[in-house]
Amino acid sequence: MKTNILKYNTLVLLVLLMVVASCTKDFDNINTDPNRPKIVPTVNLISTGQKSLTDDIYDEWFSGRQGLLWAQFWAQRNYTEEDRFIIRQNVNNQYWTRIYTDMMDLQEIINIASDPVRKAEINTSYGDADGQIAVANILKAYVFQMLVSTYGDIPYEEAFDAKNNPTPAYSSQKTIFLDLFTKLKASADYLETVESGVFTSGDLMYGGDAVKWAKFANSIRLRLAIRLSKVTDADLLAARNAAINEASGKAFTSNDDNAGITYLGDGESNAPMYDGFYTARRNDMTPTANFVDLLKGINDTLNSKQNPFAGIEDPRLSIWVPKAGGVYRGMPYGIVNQNASALRGYVANIYNAQPVYLQADATVTWMDYAEVCFILSELNGWDQTWYEAGVRASLERWGAEGIDEFIAALPPASEETVLTQKYIALFMDGYEAWAEYRRTGYPRSIIEVGENTGPLSNGTVVTFGPPPVTGNTAIPRRLTYPVQEVTINGTNVAAAASAIGGDNFSTKLIWDK
Q: Radius of gyration over alpha carbons of the chain, in Å?
């Protein structure tokens, strides 16, 4: 919070008057604006924290030029460096800094609501103090599960005391996952007992609805559990199994439970992708050819890969991808700048079409019911009912038509069909889709290093290969630590890098297949 400081001359005069009067005991009160309390109300902090995190996680840079690219939902039309794993270090630096800074609002809620005096004030005027702590922990857990799945070991236990500890130690992935399970369970358990609103105002996600927050906590528990599907560590397995047993029947039950923020679209509150495209006037992205072909039901003849939904056109295709020249065409993934530029007039132009996910008043979804359905299908041996429920939930979320006919035409639930439909449903959540690909190897439509991509404008097919400088011989398994973090906190970064097996794109995290 910014403190309202009186002008210098006025302050000097006040001090002189107080000295003359031999009375200094009320100086702090004189220099404090009673309308701006020293501690910001938690109802303000929750809205600021939610919006800041959504703006910074789902923006055109970290999401648009990394997550969505590496999940191969879209490719760049002009500068294709990130498609080929040449990251911009300033983006990595800023993302790391902003996300930890944004989470300080959530930590401040916990600090304020834990104070006995402020707790009573919150319970009287602002909601439920313990419930607010639970909500802040749920939001932090969501962000940390994404960070630990992106980088590996990260600052966690020592993350929020920069004043006294500007160089925090890094916690292990195991430590973080175990603590996330613990905090999410405690948060869900408490919120299930809350009868009134958690926040009287300010909650942009659920309007203070404790039941929905509990469902979100349990849904994240299921995401963590499925993330650890291939671990063998006894402690992690015990935590994973407990989460599955306890949360499976308490997670999202419809799209009404989806976690996210709907922007006003009024210029002051625009969805981040809208600002990235239209406020900044950047026409840089196009759906990839391989993603478009997956939705069209077309096999990958360049790499002899069978589409599990061959011959079936997805109803979401027309919602997500505009036609180019009367047909649906995407940008070949991983091609160099000049080749991409030559295809710009030939492939889909989402900037001109402005689909729903690029609207100023778009809803930015953190997690949805469809994902929970696909998780439950996997946990129940590729269950058909949950598989169909997941497809239906995604189609309904996006306002698709012909839902019953599409589901009836789909092949039965299997590892490939469930995980490929889950990938499709994660459209616009690139980091989770990228994590799922690393965990499972699906969908097969992903173009790996050494596979064919194209055709180019002259009909040529090329081999996808990042420049040798990146050190990548495959799709990155993690993101390297930010350069500024190496500079500022080098000793702890070096220890973390050693613990995970090297600060490299190719280093596999503990849950990676």
A: 25
Has residue 415 been placed in a domain? yes
Tell me which H or E stretch contains 16: helix 8-20
Is 489 part of a structural domain of the chain?
Answer: no
Which residues form the domain of 13?
Answer: 1-38
Q: How many helices (H) does the chain have, and how many strands (E)? A: 22, 8
Residue 470 has what pLDDT? Answer: 75
Asked if the structure places residue 430 within a domain, the reply is yes
> Is there a contact between 335 and 453 (Cβ–Cβ < 8 Å)?
yes
Tell me the C-alpha distance between 309 and 295, whole Å: 8
Q: Are 387 and 377 in contact (CB under 8 A)?
A: yes
Predicted confidence at residue 471, as pLDDT, reads 76
Q: Is residue 247 part of a domain?
A: no
Given a cut of 50, is residue 8 above it in pLDDT? no
Q: Is the pLDDT assigned to residue 322 strictly greater than 60?
A: yes
CB 339 within 8 A of CB 317: no
Map residue 294 onto helix, strand or coil.
helix
Question: Is 80 exceeded by the pLDDT of residue 10?
Answer: no
The domain that holds 434 is classified in CATH as 1.25.40.390
Query: What domain count does the chain have?
Result: 2
Q: Is the pTM of this model over 0.85?
A: yes
The structure tokens listed for 199 are 């926040």
Rounded to the nearest 5 degrees, what angle is found at the Cα of 455, between the Cα atoms of 449 and 461? 55
Q: 450: phi > 0 → left, psi -120 to 50 → alpha, else beta; which?
A: left
Give the separation between CA 349 and CA 372, rounded to whole angstroms: 32
- The string of pLDDT tens digits covering residues 149-170 is 999 999 999 999 989 999 999 9
